[in-house]
User: Fold these one by one.
Assistant:
Number 1:
Amino acid sequence: MKRIPIQQRGIEASRLILGCMPFGGGWNRDPLTEEDVLKAEKAIEAALSIGISMYDHANIYTMGKAEETFGRILKARPGLREQLIIQSKCGIRFGEGDVPGRFDFSKEHILEAVNDSLRRLNVDYLDVLLLHRPDPLMEPDEVAEAFGKLKSSGKVKYFGVSNMSAAQIRFLQRALPDQLAVNQLEMSLSRLDWLDQGVHVNQPVGASVNFSEGLMEYCQMENIQIQAWGPLSQGKFTGRSLEGEPENIQQTAALVQRMAAEKETTPEAIVLGWLMRHPAGIQPVIGTANAERILACQDAERQAQLMTRDEWYTLYVSARGNNMP
Ligand SMILES: NC(=O)c1ccc[n+]([C@@H]2O[C@H](COP(=O)([O-])OP(=O)(O)OC[C@H]3O[C@@H](n4cnc5c(N)ncnc54)[C@H](OP(=O)(O)O)[C@@H]3O)[C@@H](O)[C@H]2O)c1
């Protein structure tokens, strides 16, 4: 798989990222099982075999067990860590007692969360740390202090954000000496507001579109790598049962299957190729732990290169369920 640089920062990452949210079994405090580790190992093997070098974590995934699983695998395979680009996230806290689930960009939380992630992952450093979801109480100078400590101690190389608007990124960036490297957003054929926001400018019909205005353009202008979470739409177009799904989803799933058959490829390669055909150079974060499904993503980059404008619009319009304005 062709590698692309994450901007000017010198990290050479694969175009596809393996999302590690499913690793580690359920979202509970049950101990990790050998079966969980074996399943993750098979998934990583499959990902490596198709050239995936970047792995996406968060401190909260399966309540820490996703990172723990990955850490066990790294420990058993010395030398593997240096072949990988490991990204994790912090900033979401679970509810405890009377305190609800919340977001936390305090210096204390960021530093503690990274130490915990490093311990679970069995690594000395993260390549990339993302702030998971915008915290309304964020103080950019405080975040900058935390990032500064993590950078100078060698615990984190690069920093980024997730689910943030252009204004929020600008606000944070003012306090930081280094440019933010990544913004991870939900984007797929079933989550289209990142495109609809742009095509509806000056159209009353676009009033209900919920996406930060100008974010796609801002990230591209500022060289911020856009990563897409949820890129497989949880299997909606690639074989999952569609019972109860709206007509546009059902029709698009049939279209994806038809295109895949015509092009002698997989439905996964079509839906990912559609995302990757966008000029922003999106990196899809595929969240499957199923080794066969990971292998089915292999042809995505080639399909992106082959996809014509007409094919791209045919998929977009079908998934919108409405003609262009
Ligand atoms: N930044 C954020 O706020 C955020 C939020 C959510 C996720 N993420 C990241 O993004 C990654 C991907 O997100 P995602 O999991 O929401 O998206 P996804 O890649 O669209 O979907 C993956 C899920 O769909 C299932 N699936 C895929 N194809 C299927 C099929 N044909 N039939 C049945 N099930 C199918 C997978 O199950 P199998 O494992 O069985 O294949 C898995 O549970 C996560 O792992 C995580 O790293 C980030």
Note: DSSP finds twelve helices and twelve strands in the chain.
Number 2:
Amino acid sequence: MIIEFDPLMTWLIVLGALVVLVAVFFLGRRTGAQRALSRVRQYAHPANLSDGEVDDSARYRAALIVNPTKTDVRRLASTAEAICRFEGWNPPLVIETTVDDSGEGATVRALDEGVDVVIAAGGDGTIRAVASALAGTSTPMGIVPLGTGNLLARNIDLVLDKTEWALRIALWGRNREIDVGTAKIAEDGDTHIFTVMTGLGFDAAVMADTSDELKSRLGWLAYVEAGSRKLAGKPSQVKVTFDDDYRISARVRSVLGGNCGRLQGGIQLLPQAVIDDGMLDVLIVSPKNLGQWLGVLASIAGRRVSRGLHTNTRKCQKVVIEAGEELDVQLDGDPLGQSSYLAMEVMPSALTVRVPTVEQRKQIRAEAWPV
Ligand SMILES: [Mg+2]
């Protein structure tokens, strides 16, 4: 039997088939989208899973303090906004640092606004400025590491090159209390906060002599370049007083007070330093010539700094260094000028930082976040 279709019937069949194909295509896409959504929900925080209307004032809010010389602020702000929206937070308060305010004033403003976390996006200098305003408060600090050294981030095991993860850790990470150090370069002078290490002498002279331009081109190698030019300097006579009691007098190149001691490339400058033990680790470096510098470098490489060649360390809560001449001083890598006096003290558990939870660590390792 031969079935004859009239042209109208043929067109209707073709049209029907097209409708079915399009429907199958879109249903398939919806299923794909649902699959992606379920993956996203699997890694999301429970707080953003409620579908109902949430009062904005009940949502958390973050402040993002950004150093505009280290990144494209608009791009970082829009990434932060997207992540905050997705995680059920209010849009972040974004403030750029300036030459006059490297982050401390911005953080005070953010605290006045009542934010739940202040995220420092920049190098160790920006982090130090934000920490200066947060120390002694209960507001936690998140970190998006964008600097050359990123030493605090290294010492608390943050992810260094994943901005999205750094932001998520800032929002939903675990609170960890760490010590901070205070430093004064005059007995009645201002008190400065540091989170990693402060030093007088060689290390500070190197920091003061490393150009920002070379830092952005060579990274940490810029310090090596400046360091090699400073190696041949003369030692200085210093008197070091630990905890108002124990005193030593020596000819040294550098005295460092550290809250934590891990540097780039896994180098441990202060192997015994613990970031939350309520103690500072003081390192005295005293080589007299280039040959002895090799001993210092070998001691650092071999993590034998405490009983190393031409190095000595001691734990204390407070240290005062009086030098016979004006020497460079640096705080977390920022030059602070010259002084013949440096007093450092530890403020135990003064700063709360957001670090990855066990679950976040697993997800980062597995690269599980659906991007
Ligand atoms: Mg310590």
Note: The longest strand covers residues 334-355.
